[in-house]
Model the fold of this input.
Amino acid sequence: MKRNLNIAFFGSSLVSAYWNGAATYYRGIIRALHERGHQITFYEPDAFERQQHRDIPDPDWAKVVVYPADERSAFHALEEARGSDMIIKASGVGLFDELLERGVLEFQSPETLVAFWDIDAPATLERVQQHPEDPFHQLIPKYDLILTYGGGKPVVEAYDDLGARQCVPIYNALDPHTHHPVGPDQRFEADLAFLGNRLPDREKRVEEFFLNVAANLPEKTFLLGGNGWQDKTMTPNVNYVGHVYTRDHNAFNCTPKAVININRDSMARYGFSPPPRMFEAAGAGACLITDAWVGIETFLEPGEEVLVAENGDEVAEIMEALTTKRAGALGRAALRRVLSEHTYTHRAQQFEEVLQNIMREAIA
Done:
């Protein structure tokens, strides 16, 4: 494989995590690929006030092109990507997704691989399966490669059934440059914390696994971060802090006794879909609780590196029994595991192996 690939990447945003939970995933993968010699240009639209809520300046490990939120500018960005060794269209850009999904394929050639990187494969698959007339349905077999950020065997098989040439999950992971242990911050003191934006397919699960638990444990303190919860009914022992910038994620994870991961409905159904927040928390050495989903043991060992709850009652039981000593031991064990097996360097190596296999097959 050519060592220094020139990669054009169309995604939601690299520089802003505002209403953009994929930001840390993009950053981790792209930084790791840059460290391995690849050059990445990231194209993102100026939309949804993300540029007004930047977490980072333009990084030195990627070129960022922010284009105006109109069709003409989207076409111009596509034209700039012409001649790249690889062009990647991520799902959920938020503007002109159909245009971009068709447009990147215009540049496919023996010299230019074109991939679709699905950041929310369960939702994409359910949409296409329920609506066969969806334009994306006809595009799936045309891509050289479908990448997903989770889903395991069920997602791979579903994409295979839709005609994908090859589907490979590249899971979320830890970027140790960004997420690591820090000292406590009194702004984030709590017994249990949850960080996540309010979304329709997550809200009921947040009620069950977090807000109802808070209501049933009035003697405990709870911390809620993320966009959109300001008008949500919650008990007085829940401290809502709104959007939490990336620079504060480590303190948010390190300060409470424990943090909880709550999957969206579709992710929980498919399993094998650890979200970025899970690795961020583990990378900070936090004591992590997660709702139950198939495949958790692939990433962290239940009972030793993560605590797993089937429902809100089990979350409450965990919190009533959890000591500071055990919380610390679980956090340290999770940190060791993710550093040894689940960093974005590991994921970048997997990405290169996938491309190497594709190129071998093309030569053969």
Q: What stands out?
A: The radius of gyration is 20 Å.
